Fold this protein.
Amino acid sequence: MDSINIATSATLAFGTILCYAIVIAWIGRISGLFKQLASLQKLAVCVALAPMALSWVYAALLRLAPGNASGFYLSSITAVAALSALCALIACIRRSSALAGPRWRQRHWLEYLPPAFFAAVLIIFVTIMLPANIRLPIITNDPMEYFTVARAIFQHQRLEGVYPVLNDSISRGFYGPWTHPPGYPLIVAWLYLCQGTAAVAGIAKLFNVYAATSLALVVWAFSGGPYRWSSIVAALMVLLVPLFIRETFDMHIDIARLAVWTSIICMVPAWLTNRTTSTSLAFGILVGLSMFIHSLGVLFFGFFAGLVLLLQSGRLISRLGYGTIVATVAVLMLLPDYLVNYANFGYFIGDSVPLWQVKAQELIPFLNEQRGIGTVYEKIINGVLGAVTNPSVFGWTTIAFSIILPAYLIVLALPPTSVRVFLTRLFRPTLINTLILSMGAFLVMLALSTALGSNGLIKNVRYVATMSALAAVASILMADRVIVLLSARTHWRLSSHGYIYAPIAVALSWALLNEVRAQNISRLEAIPIDELQTDNPDTVLQCSIDPSLLLVSKINGALAAAPDRQIKVLAFFPAVSAYYGRYPIVSYLDPRLLPAFVTHDDAEAFAVLKALGITHVLLPSYKMGEIEKTSFASLLKDRTYFEIDRSIGGNQLLVAAGSPRLFPPDPGPLHVSPSNPILFPTSDSIAFLAYNGTDLKCIRSVSAGDFDGEIYLEAKEQIVIVTRQQIEIDVTKRYRLSFEMRVPPGSSPANTFVGLATYDAKGKLQTEEPGTYRYGVLDNANIEPSSEWKHYSGTFAGVGNQAANQFRVGTRTVAPVFLLNYNNSKPSITQFRNVIFEQID
């Protein structure tokens, strides 16, 4: 997609979403639900929930009128949004604006500094994130699964038989037995609709920037309002959570889930103190929308029941009655999805794959061990208390809450406050109390589920982070309240905003923008291709540094070279194959494979696979319980049934007995002798790779040039280049590596290292000192600019770790390696050619 199409499609897509925000504002206005909310709070809630409102309308259209052309759904959703927003605006103008809060008062110009400052920070944040997200491909597992399903919805324009994905004719055999409501895949499918294609992710990758911004708005709004520096601190603390930054870049669902979750929990006091039939109906609609994105939203019912019982606002029977209306409306909003789940799986919610049920005794302990929650101690420290003990993942919001909460309770209980007064204050229907009780309830929920033997909540760091944004809101509100209470009891005159929070806000904003910028740079450097080509699946795969993507690329290439070739792959990491592959797969979660997993007979397991037409098996580089703790542990190692067809970075493609190989056998290392030196021609860039396995054609900073009829390779940035093929050597012999190199005139001097990478008999890179590589030719050499080519050579002999020109103990193969332009203060260009490796004697 070019930049004009991106801008046009994004304007249509997100403009329509904001129309649904106006509709939500109208619902809140006419029902009276928004009566007690400030203007910014109304805006934040509407912006956060608007995508799910659009998704819900899209789902209704797909159920009522499935299988129509894409234009029908695009025009229908846009028309519903436009007409509803127009009616809402007319009604709001007649009854005063839907987002109208207290009457504006004249403020000192300094009071406008906080909102202006935060608006500037958000603009810079979005400015950094948008170009990065549109350029970065989707390479993480869960987003690839969601985008695969969204693509299927876009292609078929229906939900029945498409979501959940149980039909092997959908998405090349991908199997997704999810009980999540379809809100997130539908919003991605909507973005596909707006850009007119699902061949590339395109503007769909911008949604998480919208979600992160809406989460920041919600936290900012409910932490004290736009004119307080303290509320900016809360929002920045949330945006600085390392997990959330990664989520936004990687296009995970949870940043959007937390935006709607945080907004709906913060809405509870507004409903509780203004309970009527109309507000309950409206709140039920908003709760239903918040739960439409993910099945974890069902936790709200437990939180809501506790808050209705404990927060003292009127008679209990009244709270229970109106609370029942809220819950009933929310369930009705999701009822079609619950019924589909029950028809498909026999239960309403809770993903449960037959393999996981049958082999639970073996798989759960293995998974717990892999995720660091194997022992009771690890379950408590890394699981239940993970949000406190692991700031490198969860940030500092929950830690801040844990520190400020005792101080708040102590100040609240200071004499002459009685126990009764203290409890009365603690159970008033305020936002602070709502958040304190919610945080406590979540901690109890984590502890109880873990104590009962379930790892459902603690196995996933994204689930543990559910309360992180609410913790930030609660921390700031409690800190403000502590300052106010202490000021009232003492002669101190402390401000709850300004002098205390402004420096913190400035420091946090600087940290946030630097962190986002740094991640932006590092991620884009890992994708060394032109920005508007990154959505091309072929380019993404060929130029990726991820071995699993590279292996899928090789499979696609082999099939393209032999179009009549038919294969079916049992995929143990199916998301990559489903999203990027061009071949049919059988997911390891497919229930048809269950007999193969539970049998103890390899022949019987192999027969199950052959009956399904499986010709190959795709294995990840990491350990999986579904392999290690089932019959596949022995089956896949038995060369009677499988042998390796291709391997990249520990990821393997196995070919089944009786099926033809997809790739020719590995030719093995090159052989060198005194009479057979090896020339690596720089006229053929295929002879070289970047150190991470990326083809040089994918590296922007590397290109080929011609000097007097001889081709050379040129590097304009720091890079490590190695030869594609290794060379078999005998450590008792002597060898020479030689080449020609120059730094052209006009360039800065280049810091250069050249030598050998050494590998053991299993092909594993050896890294014993001195250095990762043995730089026996050039070691930290500063090459000055010159128009002349200079010849360099170095001799390697002997075994040991004393010198850079020695082989390591156990070295079986080597590969010439070039570290160019290392840590140069000014841009440098290095050119080399005529790389020769030879045996001297």
Summary: Residues 97-102 have pLDDT under 50 and may be disordered. Residues 799 and 807 are 5 Å apart (CA to CA). The chain is about 50% helix and 10% strand.
